[in-house]
């Protein structure tokens, strides 16, 4: 298995994913810088471009990400699982969209899960993956719940573009502008069968706390509840809407004629937003630690 | 008759061989797939057992109190490591960290040639933005300037405001359990003597 920094080095500099995030980042103050070089990241954190120091940090970071107990690798496999699931679901929905026009594959269209409940469940899995990844990477920082909440807020603030992408691509575009307000009631309608239709669930089930689908559902709803408070404030502060998201995406991807839902499907099927920004977020935390430990 | 016995003994060795193979493959499988996996090397940093590394929770209370207008946000806490960001008005000024060098013995090396001291402990500058202090030959404190950066002096002042005495005290508290509980000092010396006695004479 390749280390976190090796994966950072292999991230694309320019592709559809990068363009989509770039477009969306115009909505977020501070913007987004596509870091794809571990050496650049290390010298940014360390404030030095001494090759010997960079080599030491890199060596330490690789040792840390190789250690299974440290959780950096596990966080990445969470992001991978969610990404695989998103692509599979996006591909199916894309097929369904095309299928609507072709009589031969029309039956596929009838079979594909397009319901809003499934979309809501998918979003809740992503939020849960985000929280699990946070604890895998950062542990439980601080001595009190207030410390922990501050750490979570700090992490979310650092990953503003990533969170904006999650809100726009997985909530506002597919579920409409009232998505965050409706999410809780939508999740209430998710049953165990729906959960099993999500490919990511199979990969994540053993990492979710609690035993059995019922406990996992409760955990997902609770996790989303926590996240909603923060996400609601964040999106109203930036004034995020589906319309604005599409306009922002058009600045880099070109004009878009279709509806919001189709945009969401297109993004699901062809971009790795979540995985791309996930690797960058984990790499930064890993480098911050390695720089402190050398 | 004789050919019969050879084939019989062949069959027996074959049975034994298959049996052994089964047992070996099962135990290897069990080791790789069942929770025994955590016993395999590679689970922890530098293969140092977790109970020999001080938990990051113990470090949190030793961080300096932030000045007025500054804010200290803890960002990571793992075995042998705790890190916080010193922020001022939303801008990160510095990363502050305490780590247990028992998983990173190479980190100790840079202090060997150090001439400068802070409260008696060796101090090292690493590049233009990082300052490190080794406390009790076991814990490393690091301050890394972020954003606009900090002067070396400011970083050293920050390091001096950590609870260094409390940090040094953690070492004896985390001494291996083999040492006798007759006071940290004598226990430490005793176990040292014992270790020396156990060294082979050759």
Written overview of the protein:
The complex is a heterodimer of chains A (294) and B (202). Chain A has helices at residues 4-9, 16-25, 38-46, 51-66, 72-99, 106-111, 116-138, 145-158, 160-175, 179-188, 192-197, 199-204, 212-238, 242-253, 260-270, 273-293. With 294 residues, chain A is mainly α. Chain A has one domain (4-293). In chain A, helix 9 (160-175) packs across helix 14 and helix 9 (160-175) crosses helix 15 (260-270). In chain A, 75% of the residues lie in helices and 0% in strands. The longest helix of chain A has 28 residues, at 72-99. Chain A has 16 helices and no strands. The radius of gyration of chain A is 19 Å and the shape is globular. The mean pLDDT of chain A is 84. Chain B is of the alpha+beta class and 202 residues long. Chain B folds into two domains: 2-39; 53-173, no CATH class. In chain B, 37% of the residues lie in helices and 24% in strands. Chain B has helices at residues 2-33, 57-60, 106-109, 152-160, 164-173, 184-198; strands spanning 70-78, 81-88, 91-100, 117-118, 121-126, 130-135, 139-145. In chain B, strands 1-2-3-7-6-5-4 form a seven-stranded antiparallel sheet. Chain B is elongated and about 95 Å long. In chain B, 28% of the residues are buried. The A-B interface holds A 45-48, 50, 53, 56, 60, 63-64, 66-70, 137-143, 147, 150-151, 154-155, 285, 288-289, 291-294 and B 37-38, 42-46, 50, 56-57, 60-61, 73-79, 81-85, 95, 97, 99, 101, 104, 106-107, 126-130, 140, 142, 144-146, 149.
Write the layout of secondary structure elements.
The complex is a heterodimer of chains A (294) and B (202).
Chain A: H1 4-9, H2 16-25, H3 38-46, H4 51-66, H5 72-99, H6 106-111, H7 116-138, H8 145-158, H9 160-175, H10 179-188, H11 192-197, H12 199-204, H13 212-238, H14 242-253, H15 260-270, H16 273-293
Helix pairs in contact in A: 2-14, 3-16, 4-16, 5-7, 5-15, 5-16, 7-9, 7-13, 9-14, 9-15, 10-13
Chain B: H1 2-33, H2 57-60, E1 70-78, E2 81-88, E3 91-100, H3 106-109, E4 117-118, E5 121-126, E6 130-135, E7 139-145, H4 152-160, H5 164-173, H6 184-198
Antiparallel strand pairs in B: 1-2, 2-3, 3-7, 4-5, 5-6, 6-7
């Amino acid at each position: 298995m390749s280390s976190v920094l090796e994966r950072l080095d292999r991230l694309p500099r320019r592709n559809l994913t990068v363009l989509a995030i770039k477009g969306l980042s115009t909505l977020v103050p501070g913007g987004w810088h596509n870091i794809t070089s571990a050496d650049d990241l290390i010298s940014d954190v360390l404030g030095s471009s001494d090759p010997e120091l960079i080599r030491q940090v890199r060596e330490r970071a690789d040792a840390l990400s190789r250690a299974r107990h440290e959780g950096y690798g596990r966080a990445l496999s969470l992001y991978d699982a969610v990404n695989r699931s998103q692509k599979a679901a996006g591909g199916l929905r894309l097929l369904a969209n095309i299928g609507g026009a072709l009589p031969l594959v029309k039956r596929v269209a009838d079979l594909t899960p397009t319901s809003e409940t499934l979309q809501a469940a998918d979003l809740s899995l992503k939020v849960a993956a985000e929280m699990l990844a946070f604890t895998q990477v950062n542990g439980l920082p601080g001595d009190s719940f207030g410390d922990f909440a501050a750490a979570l807020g700090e992490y979310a603030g650092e990953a503003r573009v990533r969170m904006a992408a999650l809100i726009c691509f997985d909530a506002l575009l597919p579920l409409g502008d009232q998505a965050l307000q409706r999410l809780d009631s939508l999740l209430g309608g998710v049953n165990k069968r729906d959960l099993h239709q999500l490919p990511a669930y199979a990969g994540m089930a053993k990492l979710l706390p609690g035993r059995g689908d019922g406990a996992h559902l409760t955990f997902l709803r609770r996790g989303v509840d926590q996240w909603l408070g923060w996400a609601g404030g964040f999106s109203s502060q930036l004034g995020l809407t589906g319309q604005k998201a599409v306009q922002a995406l058009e600045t880099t991807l070109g004009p878009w004629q279709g509806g919001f839902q189709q945009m969401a499907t297109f993004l699901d099927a062809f971009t790795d937003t979540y995985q791309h920004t996930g690797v960058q977020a984990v790499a930064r935390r890993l480098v911050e630690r390695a720089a402190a430990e050398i | 008759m004789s050919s019969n016995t050879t084939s019989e003994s062949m069959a027996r060795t074959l049975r034994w061989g298959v049996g052994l193979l089964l047992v070996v493959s099962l135990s290897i499988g069990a080791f790789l797939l069942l929770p025994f996996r955590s016993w395999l090397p590679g689970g922890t940093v530098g293969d140092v057992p977790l109970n020999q590394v001080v938990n990051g929770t113990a470090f949190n209370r030793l961080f300096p109190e932030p000045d007025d207008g500054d804010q200290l946000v803890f960002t990571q806490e793992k075995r042998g490591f705790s890190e916080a960001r010193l922020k001022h008005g939303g801008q990160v000024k510095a990363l502050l960290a305490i780590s247990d060098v028992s998983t990173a013995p190479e980190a100790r090396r840079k202090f060997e040639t150090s001439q400068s001291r802070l409260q008696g402990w060796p101090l090292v500058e690493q590049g233009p933005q990082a300052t490190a202090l080794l406390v009790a030959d076991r814990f490393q404190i690091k301050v890394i300037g972020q954003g606009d950066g900090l002067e070396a002096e400011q970083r050293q002042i920050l390091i001096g405001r950590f609870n260094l005495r409390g940090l040094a005290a953690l070492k004896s508290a985390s001494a291996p359990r083999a040492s006798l509980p007759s006071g940290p000092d004598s226990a430490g010396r005793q176990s040292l003597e014992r270790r020396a006695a156990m060294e082979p004479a050759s």
